[in-house]
Write a structure and sequence with these properties.
5-stranded antiparallel sheet; SH3 type barrels; single chain; alpha+beta; about 35% strand
C-alpha cells in the first residue's frame, strides 16, 4: 500500500456540514460567555493527549466513545469491490490561546478585559480548524509484508498580534494569539477480509496518534490541551467500490464486521442516502448518513440540543451578557448577530417539520402490530430482547426484563416502535402518567401471555 500527501479534494463536500458540526461540538456553549462554568471545562470529544502523559493517568479506555481521552484513535472499516484508491482526510482543531494587553502610553501589560468603548475583548482559549488529506493505494489488497504505511503530519506553532484601536483611532491595546506545534502520525493498513457476492472484501485500518508533546506527568490538563489535537475525526472516500455499513452490515459481511475494532471513534456511512462511497469516523456516536437538519439556520456549537430552544434562550440574554459573549469569541458574536437578525419565517421553520405522512388511527382506534404472528397493542406484555448492535447501550441492561406495552408508534421512516414501561419498576405508574416510556422495535421483544406471570388479562 503506497501513500502520498495531496491537496484536499472536493469529494467530501456532501459530508462537510456534518463533519463541521462534530468539529465544533461543545466548542462554546450557551450562554456563550467565558465566565460561564460550562465554558471553563471544554474540549470533550476526540482529544488526543500526549502519549506519556496519558499513560500516567491510568488504564487505556478502548471504548468507541470519543469522550474518553487517549493518545490515539483507531478506525476499522470494510471496503467492498475493486477499490484501488482511498482518499483519507484527518480533521481536528489546533488549540490557540488568546490573551489581551492594554497600552498604558509607554508599553503593553497583561489585562483581564480590554474595553475600547466600541468593543470589549477578554482572554479566551480558541481553536483553529486544520485538515490534511492523504491518498493511498491498495496495492495487492494488503498482500505486502504487513500491509501498512505511516504518514507524519507536522503543524508549526506561531503567534499573531492584533492591535486594537480606540474611538480616536489611537492604539489602546492588543490581542495576542499563540499556537503550539502539533505532531501526528497516521498509520494505514489494508488486509483481505474475505469475499463478497461481487468481489473482494478489504479491512481498512486508520490509526491517528499524537506523536509529539513531551509533557511530564502531572501537568494540568489546560496546559496539555495546547499540544493535543481536538475534536479529531477522519473522512474517507473511495471510487470503484463502496464502504460496508458496520451498523447494519449485509448478512455476507456480518462476520467480518464483528472483527472490526474501533477505538474512541466509530465509522458510519456518510453523504447522500443510498450512496456508500463516503465514510465519517466520528468521536460522537452517529447513525448512517447523518445530516444537519435543513431548517437549521447555522451552527450553535451544540448539535445535541434543539436549535429552537437555544435560539430562544439566546434572545433572553441581557445586553450586558451579550456584550460579554461577543467579547469572548468571534464565533459567539456571529451566533448573536444571526439570532438577533433572524426573520419570523426562519423561527417558524425551527418549530418543527413534517418529514412524512403516515396514517393516524381514528379516534378510539388502538394502534397495533404483530410479533411472531401475535397481536401486540396497548396493554400487551412483552419480554425485552435488545439488539446487541445498533441500539442504545443502556437498553442492553434490560435484556430479559418483562414490560407492558403502552403505545404502538410509527416513526418518520415507517419503523414501528413499542413504548413500554417495566413491570417491576415501582415508578411505572408515575412514568405512565407523565408519558415517559422506553422504546423498542418489534425485533427487540418477545410476546408474552398474561398467564406467564399469573396475572389477569389486561382490560
Amino acid at each position: 500500500m503506497g501513500t502520498r500527501t495531496v491537496i484536499a479534494e472536493d469529494v467530501f463536500a456532501p459530508v462537510r456540514s456534518v463533519a463541521d458540526a462534530i468539529l465544533y461540538e461543545g466548542y462554546l456553549l450557551y450562554p456563550y460567555r467565558g465566565s460561564s462554568g460550562k465554558n471553563r471545562v471544554r474540549w470533550q470529544f476526540g482529544v488526543l493527549t500526549p502519549r506519556e502523559w496519558t499513560k500516567d493517568r491510568g488504564p487505556d479506555d478502548k471504548g468507541v466513545a470519543g469522550s474518553a481521552e487517549g493518545w490515539w484513535q483507531q478506525t476499522e472499516c470494510l471496503l467492498y469491490g475493486a477499490v484501488e484508491t482511498v482518499v483519507c482526510q484527518v480533521r481536528f482543531l489546533q488549540f490557540q490561546r488568546r490573551t489581551v494587553e492594554e497600552f498604558d502610553g509607554h508599553g503593553y501589560r497583561r489585562a483581564e478585559v480590554l474595553d475600547t468603548g466600541l468593543r470589549q475583548e477578554v482572554g479566551f482559549d480558541e481553536a483553529v480548524a486544520r485538515e490534511s488529506t492523504v491518498r493511498f493505494l491498495l496495492e495487492g489488497k494488503g498482500n505486502t509484508a504487513d500491509g501498512s504505511r505511516k504518514v507524519f503530519l507536522e503543524l508549526p506553532g506561531g503567534q499573531d498580534i492584533e492591535v486594537v484601536q480606540g474611538e480616536d483611532g489611537q492604539p489602546v491595546g492588543r490581542i495576542l494569539r499563540r499556537r503550539w506545534p502539533l505532531s501526528l502520525a497516521v498509520r494505514f493498513c489494508a488486509t483481505p477480509a474475505g469475499e463478497g457476492p461481487k468481489g473482494p472484501l478489504t479491512r481498512l485500518r486508520v490509526r491517528v496518534e499524537n506523536s509529539g508533546g513531551n509533557i511530564p506527568p502531572g501537568t494540568p490538563r489546560d496546559e496539555v490541551l495546547c499540544v493535543s489535537p481536538l475534536s479529531c475525526h477522519v473522512l474517507m472516500a473511495v471510487r470503484g467500490g463502496s464502504f460496508v455499513s458496520l451498523l447494519e452490515p449485509p448478512e455476507w459481511a456480518c462476520a467480518a464486521a464483528r472483527t472490526c475494532e474501533n477505538v474512541r471513534v466509530f465509522p458510519v456511512l456518510a453523504g447522500h442516502p443510498g450512496h456508500h462511497d463516503l465514510l465519517l469516523s466520528s468521536p460522537i456516536l452517529l447513525y448512517d448518513h447523518p445530516r444537519v437538519a435543513p431548517e437549521s439556520p447555522g451552527d450553535l456549537h451544540d448539535s445535541g440540543e434543539i436549535d429552537e430552544i437555544l435560539t430562544l434562550r439566546t434572545l433572553t440574554l441581557t445586553d450586558e451578557e451579550k456584550r460579554e459573549a461577543r467579547a469572548t469569541d468571534a464565533r459567539a458574536a456571529a451566533i448573536l448577530d444571526r439570532v438577533d437578525a433572524m426573520p419570523p419565517e426562519v423561527f417558524e421553520r425551527l418549530h418543527g417539520a413534517v418529514r412524512s405522512m403516515n396514517r393516524v388511527p381514528a379516534p378510539g382506534e388502538d394502534a397495533e402490530a404483530f410479533v411472531a404472528g401475535v397481536r401486540v397493542g396497548a396493554g400487551s406484555r412483552v419480554r425485552l430482547r435488545p439488539r446487541a448492535r445498533g441500539t442504545d447501550p443502556q437498553d442492553r441492561f434490560l435484556d430479559g426484563r418483562d414490560a407492558r406495552v403502552e403505545k404502538v408508534l410509527t416513526d418518520v421512516d415507517d419503523v414501528v416502535h413499542l413504548a413500554v414501561t417495566l413491570e417491576d419498576d415501582p415508578a411505572a405508574d408515575l412514568e405512565r402518567w407523565y408519558g415517559r416510556y422506553r422504546y423498542f422495535t418489534l425485533d427487540e421483544v418477545e410476546p408474552l401471555a398474561a398467564k406467564d406471570a399469573g396475572e389477569e388479562d389486561p382490560e
